[in-house]
Specification:
single chain, alpha/beta, eight-stranded parallel beta sheet, two-stranded antiparallel ribbon, 9 helices, 10 strands, about 35% helix, globular
Length: about 270
């Protein structure tokens, strides 16, 4: 059985909600007056709302750490691990993401018993963070060395805030990411957080990879448009549409979360 099916054995098209962690210590927007406990209190409150809304899984991410960096510090992995440990659900799967350091995400996943990580694992990119060349070979070798062969690798092939250096299409990237880099799940994103990709891109990627490899919508999932994406995608990750005014860095609104669940389930 694939890692994805092991994580979601009884869910046809999983709906994964983002639990955005506020800025971590040392980052420009960190709220020193609230401290680390403030991070935990915020994420715990939002996670509870998302679980009550009925999402199938939670994905913890350091969304507040603008501007993002490609190499995390030790303190970042330690604090993220603490936040996830104190806020993770006990009755459904959860994953971790660190923008944009896959090795850091792996370390957090090992520390917290996470089910999956979401990262960019291969390719060469020009990005807001500068030149970017992830290392899938090291990531998967470290997964094995840490004894976490059950950890799902959800690979973002169209990362936000970046563009591919080269001429391969998203569909070609997806196929090689599965064949060469051994990704468990392919994610398709828009140009930035909360932005929709072209639905044709999602369709082309779905057609390009084997049917047993799930393709998920990674950004831009909205209650009003999710139906057209779920015609092609095997599920989605959603964050911004669940927030007040649909703005990524606002707080979760229970009514918006419930509206999204209703729209996606009916689709």
């Amino acid at each position: 059985m694939s890692r994805f099916k092991t994580i979601f054995p009884n869910v046809n098209k999983p709906l994964i909600a983002m639990a955005h962690v506020p800025p971590l210590p040392g980052t420009p927007l960190f709220n020193a007056s609230k401290g680390v406990q403030g991070l935990i209190d915020h994420v715990k409150r939002e996670t509870e709302l998302l679980l009550e809304a009925g999402f199938d899984a939670i994905l913890f991410c350091n969304e507040g750490d603008r501007p993002y960096q490609l190499h995390a510090g030790l303190e970042a992995s330690a604090i993220m691990a603490r936040v996830v440990t104190e806020c993770k659900p006990s009755d459904r799967p959860y994953g971790v993401d660190f923008l944009w350091d896959a090795q850091c995400a792996l370390a957090i996943a090992v520390a917290t018993d996470a089910y999956f990580i979401r990262e960019v694992i291969n390719g060469t990119w020009e990005s807001d963070m500068g030149p970017w060349s992830p290392d899938a070979a090291k990531l998967l070798r470290d997964r094995r060395a840490f004894g976490r062969e059950n950890l799902g690798i959800f690979a973002n092939i169209t990362p936000e805030f970046a563009s591919n250096i080269g001429t391969r299409s998203a569909a070609q990237m997806a196929k090689s990411t599965v064949v060469s880099s051994l990704a468990d799940v392919i994610l398709v994103s828009g140009p930035m957080a909360g932005s929709e990709p072209d639905v044709r891109t999602v369709s082309d990627v779905r057609d390009a990879v084997p049917r047993d490899i799930p393709v998920l919508l990674n950004t831009g999932a909205k209650a009003g448009t999710i139906a057209k994406y779920l015609k092609h995608a095997n599920g989605c990750i959603v964050g911004s549409d669940l927030k007040r005014d649909g703005y990524t860095w606002n707080e979760v609104e229970p009514e918006r979360a419930k509206r999204f669940i209703d729209a996606a389930r009916s689709a």
